[in-house]
Amino acid sequence: MAVLGQIRKRSIFLIIVIGMALFAFVISGVFTSNGGFGSNKPIGEINGEEINYETFNMMVEQAQNAYGLNTLNAVNLAWDQGIKNQALLQELDKLGIDAGKDQLEQIISSDQSIVLNPLFQNEIGLFDFNKFSSYISQLKSSNPTLYDQWRFQELNIISLAKQKIYFDLIRSSVIYTDVESNIQYHIENDKVNIEYLRIPYDEIPDSIIQIKDSEIFSYLKNNRDSYEKGEFRKVDYVFIPDAASSIDENNLRTGLEQLRDGFSQLNPVSNTIEDIIGFKDVKDYSEFIEIYSDVRWDSIFKTKQEISGDFSDILFGLRKGEVFGPYRDGNTFKISRMIDKKRDGNLNKVLLADVVKEIVPSNESSNNNYRKASQAEFDANSDLPLNSSDQSLFIDSFSSFEEFDSGLPGVENSRQVIKWLYEDQTRVGDVKRFTLNDGYLVAKAISFNKKSLPNVDDVRDEVSETLLKDKKFEFLLKNYKGSNDIDLISQDYDIELERATAVTQNDPILVGAGSEPYIIGSAFSLDTDETSNLLKGNNGIYIVRLLSKETAEDISIGAAISNSLSDREVERISTLIPQVLESKAEIVDNRSLYY
After folding, report:
1. Percentage helix, strand, coil for the chain under 3-state DSSP, each rounded to 5
2. Dihedral of CA 201/204/205/209: which sign?
3. Are 446 and 398 in contact (CB under 8 A)?
């Protein structure tokens, strides 16, 4: 009980120690509804397994706390990592891979924050897993909340153990033979010295090449994966800011001028007119600010650099007692009075008192802004343009390719518009008015589009650039009829030959041209003094002459090299497998219903 007493005094013990300061979405039976945490309220499914909302939301909060993310980014991180890992764990279940107490003990015993904790050490100072297990057992009855947190972490650790078994199996099957290792060794160490002619594509005029729309469309069909646009929903919208009018701003200025100079007002108690001394003359300026300013005064001396706004020079130069304003500072109007000046070390500082009025719309302006939004909504429902009644409103469009888009570009708090756009009951032509933090937005669903190739006009420049390279290469082949006379072609295009030394296939960079793996690979296939045919590269058309080749001396390929290559391949496969499993998984995403 003494141990539990110490633990109770340290409520974050499990988070710091047992949690091992890890944050990883590798949770078996926790990401889905089988973990027993929370109610069965699915936020989605993966391969038929429901994803528990309460547990998922706990993961979102973990992401926010660990990485300082906003809600939407934390949701995306939890979802992306959770889906990948759950797909992997489902695969492990199919393969019959499991982990038990031994694997759990192995992982826990490798964490120094647990092993070195005196609470879990025996008489001679060594970690005792039985003590650790005993503590967990007592925790189940003494503190169920902390026990549930441990269960969450325990399932996490078991999942780690299962994955370790799986990837250890992969590691044991990935073996680089001496032959493969030797090939990789020569790719990295064999070198060529070459002389080459590079004809930049720009040297061949575009005007001599004709590209037909049918060729562009054919290219799109042959490269559908790169150009096909996914399903998307298009929305038109207008935004009406709930902002102060010019009349409101003038009234604020006038009000501040009266506060500056003094004014008269009716005393409701005595029913008499009384004169109020203005800010420029009042003695108790602190009380005046307390009564009439929207922002409290901070009586801090400031340097010139610490005074914000466009009028810092004027404010810093005021004489003691002098008042400046009204002037605009961001979303406020101010009048400022110089209270005092002093020398603080090597710095001159001043004390300013400000009466601040925030620029907010009047009731009349707010009502007018609301009427504008209501009229735009009415017009859109009548099949009229959103700005039919007010041409000053700008109609913008947005195409959403993802149900979980964060919102409309540049419009804060507009996630709700995307949610509406993807609701089952929303149809093309539907209109809705939204009240946002700083105004109103009226949206109209314009189209729901299936997967399709883009219009030729939309990709003409991009595809034409690719096709031009092919056609210019064909043009040179035809023009020189297969000739590889490097000197002749150099003279024709007035381009000097260049040289590159000690170039490897592993790093196929030509200075001034960039990466050219095909060109360098072709050079390695040549014999000394042999000249290549015309070659199509990334950054031009080449002819290459091999000056010399340096073949690395054969060495006895040791286990270290083979192991290094195997480790590199295992790392690649380890990253690839979760992505492949996710791509093949049947996923139901209901996040938009909750966030």
Report:
1. 45, 20, 35
2. negative
3. no
Domain boundary (428, 449, 470) is at 449
3-state class (DSSP) for residue 52: strand
Residue with the two structure tokens 């995306």 = 76
Residue 574 lies in a domain: no
Selection from 491, 502, 486, 504 nearest residue 545 by Cα: 486
Residue (of 475, 430, 472) closest to 448 by Cα position: 430
Q: What is the mean pLDDT of the chain?
A: 85
User: CB atoms < 10 A from the CB of 338, how many?
Assistant: 19
DSSP state of 127: B
d(CA 33, CA 346): 66
CATH number of domain containing 120: 1.10.4030
Paired tokens of 6: 């110490």
Cis, bond preceding 268 (omega within 30 deg of 0): no
Per-residue pLDDT reduced to its tens digit, 419-462 = 999 988 999 999 999 999 889 999 999 999 888 888 888 889 88
Cβ–Cβ < 8 Å for 496, 505: no
133/148 Cα distance (integer angstroms): 15
Q: What's the pLDDT band for 32 if we cut at 50, 70, 90?
A: low
SS3 284: coil
Please write the tens of the pLDDT for every residue from 356-410. 999 999 999 999 999 999 999 999 999 999 998 888 899 999 998 888 888 898 8
Paired tokens of 262: 């003094």
Q: Are residues 344 and 268 in the same domain?
A: yes
Say whether pLDDT at 181 is over 50. Answer: yes
| Lowest mean pLDDT, pick from 142-151, 240-249, 538-547 | 142-151
Cβ-contact 27, 159 below 8 angstroms: yes
Phi, psi (deg, nearest 5) at residue 307 = -90, 115
Q: What is the CA radius of gyration of the chain?
A: 36
Give the other-Cβ count within 10 Å of 369's Cβ: 19
Give the strand pairing for 262-267 and 42-46. unpaired
User: Do residues 302 and 442 share a domain?
Assistant: no
Q: How many domains does the chain have?
A: 4
Tally of CB atoms within 10 A around 246 = 8
CA distance 117 to 127: 8
- 38 and 95 belong to one structural domain: yes
Neighbours of 273 (CB within 10 A): 9
Q: What is the mean pLDDT of residues 295-312?
A: 88
What pLDDT, on the 0 to 100 scale, is given for residue 554? 77
- pTM beyond 0.70: no
Measured in degrees and rounded to the nearest 5, phi and psi for residue 500 equal -135, 135
